[in-house]
Design goal:
82% helix; mainly alpha
């Protein structure tokens, strides 16, 4: 009997110990599961945040591209309006010169009126001399044109040069080379407008004879032979001692 009682007590103690030893293992498994669940949730939230940020970046890139496109379009339109304004001024100047020269006529009264009417004259003006930075920029543009043949880039650089350094000696050159580049592309209407600015606004500049001659070339390529001849004759009459006048004479002689 005593042995049976001892055995019963020992069995009870063993069962209690087993129960105590199994409880922490179960609790540890639950804690590990909770940690894994929390980690998975954190990863999911982080992935969602990254995905949302990527979408926002893509959206911002699209807005930037759209704004860049609009800026390019506005810049191009402003350049076209700028050149168109100078073209209108040139046409107005030519109309005034034609009215000033009269229609011709043999009457003495017409001759007297013509002699009293002030004749248009080329007004000499002083051109601002370029700074070292301005000259360096101009030479870089010349490299784009002469060596790299990067005409589209050169056109943009020429417009920026004209805006950055207005009314200077090299500014007139920039207008002239704008016409040359457009002539090469060829964009004849734009070339005509650029050469017109030089030939009308800067008539006393060294580039004026060349610009006037190039206007004749442009009209010739546009199939406007009569207009081309008129420009060549103007080169000979206004700038007879220039190299452009020699070229104009060859054109007229060949015609």
């Amino acid at each position: 009997m005593r042995k049976l009682l001892v055995a019963t007590v020992a069995l009870a103690v063993s069962a209690g110990a087993l129960a105590q030893s199994s409880t922490p293992a179960y609790q540890n498994n639950q804690s590990e599961a909770r940690r894994q669940s929390a980690g998975n949730q954190g990863n999911a939230e982080l992935f969602f945040m990254i995905e949302r940020l990527q979408q926002e970046v893509r959206s911002l890139r699209g807005e930037v591209e759209e704004q860049r496109h609009q800026l390019d379009r506005l810049t191009r339109q402003s350049r076209e309006r700028y050149i168109d304004l100078d073209q209108r001024l040139m046409e107005l100047s030519e109309q005034q010169q034609q009215r000033g020269s009269g229609t011709g006529g043999s009457g003495s009264s017409t001759a007297a009126a013509s002699s009293e009417r002030p004749q248009p004259q080329t007004v000499s003006q002083e051109y601002r001399q370029p700074s070292a930075e301005e000259r360096e920029t101009y030479e870089r543009i010349q490299t784009l044109i002469q060596q790299d043949k990067a005409y589209d880039e050169a056109i943009g650089e020429l417009y920026e040069f004209i805006n950055e350094y207005p009314e200077g000696d090299l500014t007139v050159n920039a207008y002239y080379w704008l016409g040359e580049v457009y002539l090469v592309k060829p964009q004849l209407e734009q070339a005509k407008q650029a050469f017109t600015i030089v030939a009308t606004r800067f008539q006393d500049h060294r580039k004026a004879p060349d610009a006037l001659y190039k206007l004749g070339v442009v009209h010739d390529r546009m199939g406007e032979k009569d207009q081309a001849e008129r420009y060549m004759e103007r080169v000979v009459n206004q700038y007879g001692a220039s190299q452009a006048a020699n070229l104009a004479k060859k054109y007229l002689g060949a015609g």
